[in-house]
Amino acid sequence: MLMGEAVRGVIVDHALLQYGTIQPENFKSNGTLSLLRKLLFSNIQTAISYVLPVSAERVNLLQTMAKLHSFECLPLTASSPDIASREIAQTWSHISGTILYLLPNHDASPKITCTYFSIALDDEVTSAFHNSNRIYMEKLEELPLTICHLNKKAISNDLVTVGYIMKPSREEDFAKRGAFPICPTPNGLMFLPLTFELPISKQLEEVDVILHKATDEIVSIELNSSSESSYQIGYTKGMQELQRHIENHNDCFEVDPLNSIYPVLDRLKIQQLLLGLEDLNVGGRCKVRAPHFLKVNSFDEPDLVQRLHDATLSLPSIVKPQVACGVADAHSMAIVFKVEDFKVLNVPLPAVIQEYVDHSSTLFKFYVLGDRVFHTVKKSMPNADVLIKSSEKNGSKPPL
Fold first, then answer.
1. Rounded Cα distance, 69 and 48, in Å
2. Which residues neighbour 151 within 8 Å (Cβ) at sequence distance 6 or greater?
3. For residues 99 and 5, what is the distance between their CA atoms, to the nearest angstrom?
4. Which one-letter DSSP state was computed for residue 159?
5. Which of 110, 133, 156 is the last residue of a domain?
6. InterPro entries of this UniProt entry (predicted)?
7. 238 near 231, Cβ under 8 Å?
8. Within this chain, do residues 12 and 150 fall inside the same structural domain, yes or no?
9. Distance CA 163, CA 210 (A)
10. Same domain for 319 and 185
11. pLDDT of residue 336
12. Domain encompassing residue 207
């Protein structure tokens, strides 16, 4: 690869997609197609290829699959890289950069041959085919790592590569908005989706920074009853492997350090941190404070009314589990309008009872990176008067 010739196109032979007898309505759940969709979000031209002749039924299935994911469907006269490359160059004459062409090695190992070649603006294939232009893979999941390696080799070592890990739905939501581009950005950033399907240490050889959503990888959280804010966190095996790697490599830069995210797992700890907002108040400006709150271990406490009064809590109040995220029922909440409603709550314990603050169904969520502050606007729950009317319609049951 020549300097500046980053990967701009990927063509995958249909036999690698493992779609078998998948019906069109299930294409979205195919992991391989989801992987290729990441390339599209990074503005990498993506196509499914097949070698003629192919039955009309199979062609129709491939075209349906391609259309659903906004891929191209590319018929070729031969799978030979020498012949296929010239056909691809004619079809993709608008692309200037490196193209990857992936073929299965039937009944052989490694299972996938990835041939790469460059297309110049004059539509000519500029790379001769030899062993140095081929990379072998065992799994299609190695494709992003391969692209990352080739891009760094082509462009220079000035790129900062950010490896990231989070649940697929969150990743796709970000990617649709242009985040996490696998193609290098003008300011020298490149993103690599990490996968626990491959050894994590091998992937991190290409990475300068690790961006993780560790809470997506939590399988259990146990609160320590002997402490107001102490807990044991159980991660998936993959996250445990990543955690060990980070602990054993002092030069590994992570966003955020795992120790820094632990306070946001605990709503009681969050409330205690927010109490510090009062120290930031300056005369002549709007005062900022945390919502009033109370931790409870039971909704049947005989002195609950007095404790609510002592905590400056009036009704309505919102009741939340102390565990803030990472477990299935972390977001099981309720709005309470009458004291007797506490006795029928199904909110997991221990819980935090919090002052309900009217906010017109709008939340502002802030993110801080160094000295820069970002924010997003999110929809939220309506004001108390609207909730009261809703509660009356539901027979005065606490709305969940």
1. 11
2. 6, 7, 159, 182, 183, 184, 190
3. 10
4. P
5. 156
6. Inositol_tetrakis-P_1-kinase, InsP(3)kin_ATP-grasp
7. no
8. yes
9. 5
10. no
11. 92
12. 159-264
Amino acid at 339: V
Q: Are residues 31 and 121 in the same domain?
A: yes
Q: What is the CATH number of the domain that holds 363?
A: 3.30.470.20
The rounded average pLDDT for each run of 10 residues, N- to C-terminus, in the chain (400 residues) is 72 81 55 85 92 90 88 90 85 88 85 83 47 83 94 82 94 89 90 94 93 92 63 90 91 87 89 87 80 95 94 94 88 91 92 94 90 92 86 64
Query: Maximum CA pair distance of the chain?
Result: 83
Phi then psi for 348, rounded to 5 degrees?
A: -60, 145
pLDDT score for 11: 94
123 lies in the same domain as 98: yes
CB within 8 Å of 92: residues ≥ 6 apart: 9, 45, 99, 119
pLDDT digits (tens, 9 = 90+) for 240-297: 999 999 999 888 899 888 888 888 899 999 999 999 888 887 777 788 889 999 999 9
How many domains does one find in the chain? 3
d(CA 292, CA 73): 59
Could you give the CA distance from residue 392 to residue 374 in angstroms, rounded to a whole number? Answer: 39
CB 171 within 8 A of CB 193: yes
Encoded amino acid at 176, one letter: K
CATH number at residue 164: 3.40.50.11370
154/369 Cα distance (integer angstroms): 30
Tell me the CATH number at 44. 3.40.50
Q: Does 326 lie in the same domain as 234?
A: no
pLDDT of residue 82: 81
What pLDDT score does 225 carry?
Answer: 57
Statement to judge: residues 143 and 22 lie in one domain: yes
pLDDT given for residue 194 in this prediction = 96
Whole-number pLDDT of residue 396: 59
Locate all alpha helices (DSSP H) within the chain, ordered by sequence.
31-41, 56-69, 81-91, 143-155, 168-176, 200-204, 237-248, 258-261, 267-274, 304-310, 384-393
